[in-house]
Amino acid sequence: MKRRNRIFSSLIAVVVLAGMFSFAPGVFAAESGTQVTDGNAARTFSVSSVAKTPIATVLEDQGQQPGENVSPDEPSKSKTFQIKVTQATGGTVTVDKDSITEDQIKQGELITVTITPDKGYGVTDLLINGKSVGVTGYTYTFEPTEETTTVKAKFHKSSEYLFIMLDAGHYGKVNKSPVLSSYYESQMTWPLHLYLKEELEKYQNVAVATTRAAQSKDMAVYNRGTASKGYDLFLSLHSNATSSKTTDYPLVITQKGNTSDSLAKSLGQAIQKTMGTKQDYKVWQKLNSDKKTEYYGVLRGAKAVGTKGMILEHSFHTNLAAAKWLSEDENLKAMAKAEADVIAAYYGLSKTGSVVAPSKPGSFTVSNTAYNALTLKWRKSANAQGYFIYRATSKNGTYSRVKIIKNANTTSWKNTSLTCGKTYYYKIRAYRQAGTKKKYSGYTAIKSCKTKPATPSVSSTAGKKRVTVKWNKVAGATRYVVYRATTKNGKYKKIATLKSNRRSYVNKKLKSKKAYYYKMRVYRTVNGKNYYSNYSGYTMKKTK
Fold it and tell me: What does pTM read for this prediction?
């Protein structure tokens, strides 16, 4: 899902005391951008320290000058601050004037600015006095510490929906902490990635999948990356290790050339803030000796299928404080929420609004796989989280749901334990869910197929006035049947019916230096009736 990228920026000149900040969720879905433009619809807020009354008044088109006293009660005693807001394409910035009171503008108190991306946009970054502070939500709360603060918000163009692949680093009991015997990296990352999936799925129009179905299941690192094919974002969750027991900084490892990525920075900041590490986060890349490819297989795999990928190292489990923190389930839930808020703000996700219905799966087919199995295949549905598969034994009969596919990237399923010689009818539809809301696509057209033995593969070798025909074992076959012709498209006659344990047949007493063509099929006998496979392709040999 490639999109054109555009970045828009909003400049807020804040003549006010500034410092601390935090963020909270907002709206819509987005991607990275490259083009910056400044808005021009300036708005001025006058903030006065009049006791016990709201003190932020919007001065728009009223002829008042910035800094003019707006309190009718004590104009000579009120202290006025100014907030100039310049809007830009892609979002709006507002001051929460109803919450600003005399107490809030005293030293050490907080004032909140809210940044809301328009529909179809997300927040790329916030620059405070030219320094990136990342994006961890939609509000900026600051504590008075300086006289003048400049805030610059960048927005980027978005899409209707987002696909995220999460990977829990390692499996089983791997990477034990040397300072906390109960801690294993693999046993931390598994619940963390499930909590993150749960938090992300509270938002509308986001589909989240995981690389592995079970913690005990291993998977090659490169294949974990390529599992993100068709997704927008791949995140592999880990904790780090080093020889130092004091090192505790969070680390975000990116694909080549992405160390300045604003999402990577924001995730690093969120991990640092949530864990309270002593050292600042870092964004880093590691390449192979060719200086062209990523050292880590998960990142190479994700890049190979065109997916933006990152490894999130949640501090170091060689640090006792970090290992203890990561051992607490409630801490992992807090981390998952913090990371979900970062992703939601960056991609502009919302917890409110309607769920976008997925498109109907395309190119639906059902084919024979074995005497007791059929294989269903379809084309990926846009905006889907998964698929429901329904089956009946007659076209107009009752269809029962026989399978739920929870990975939108899975586009095939093998239905086993069926009865040989029986026809089955199928239809599927896609679904997506956000919270308690669920939307479905329309049903595909009904497709049917009869179970029968798989088609054998056949080969041959030539000898003096003979040809040896060979074939592979076919599961469930009762007999193998060999046919012969003297031309490729001629009439094939049955020349042998062989038991199920046979894998070859020698056709003797043939004419010398003559070409012979062979085909095969098998059958399975059920209740006295034979159910045949399809014919194999032909094999030809000329006798010696």
Answer: 0.55
- Taking the C-alpha atoms of residue 443 and residue 156, their distance in angstroms, rounded to an integer, is 35
Q: What is the DSSP letter of 528?
A: T
Domains of the chain as residue ranges with CATH: 7-157 (no CATH), 162-347 (3.40.630.40), 362-450 (2.60.40.10), 458-542 (2.60.40.10)
Element spanning 114, H or E: strand 111-117
Select from 493, 492, 451, 459 the least CA-distant residue to 475.
451
H, E, C per residue of 236-293: EEEEECCCCCCCCCCEEEECCCCCCCHHHHHHHHHHHHHHCCCCCCEEECCECCCCCC
Distance in Å from the first CA to the final CA of the chain: 58
Question: Cα–Cα distance between 326 and 320 in angstroms, integer?
Answer: 10
Residues 6+ apart with CB under 8 A from 72: none
Under DSSP, is residue 182 helix (H, G, I), strand (E, B) or coil?
coil
Cα dihedral 183, 184, 189, 191 in deg (nearest 10): -60
Q: What are 137's two structure tokens? A: 């939500």
Dist. CA 340–CA 116, nearest whole Å? 17
Residue 61 CB partners (closer than 8 Å, separation 6+) = none
Band of residue 230 on the pLDDT scale cut at 50, 70, 90: confident
- 3-class DSSP state for residue 298? helix
Bridge partners, 374 (sequence order): 368, 415
Question: How far apart are alpha carbons 284 and 255 in whole angstroms?
Answer: 9
* Structure tokens, 330: 């409630």
- pLDDT of 145: 61
3-state secondary structure of 69: coil
CB-CB neighbours of 263 under 10 Å: 25
Residue 397 has pLDDT above 80, yes or no: yes
Q: Which two tokens stand for residue 343?
A: 């992703």
Q: Which residues pair with 433 in a beta bridge?
A: 438
What is the torsional sign of CA 113, 117, 122, 126? negative
* pLDDT for res 89: 66
**Contact by Cβ (8 Å): 311, 238:** yes
CA distance 500 to 418: 21
Q: How far apart are CA 269 and CA 236, in angstroms?
A: 17
H helix and E strand count, the chain: 6, 32
Q: Please say whether the beta carbons of 125 and 154 come within 8 A.
A: yes
CB burial of residue 287 (10 Å; 0-12, 13-18, 19+): middle
Helix 185-200 with 329-347: angle, nearest 10 deg? 50
408 and 381 Cβ atoms separated by less than 8 Å: yes
The helix/strand/coil state of 411 is coil
Determine the 3-state secondary structure of 402 from DSSP: strand
Which of the two residues, 337 and 358, has the higher pLDDT score?
337
**Quick count: other Cβ atoms within 10 Å of Cβ 236?**
29
β-sheet bridge partners, residue 506: 468
- Mean pLDDT throughout 409-434? 92
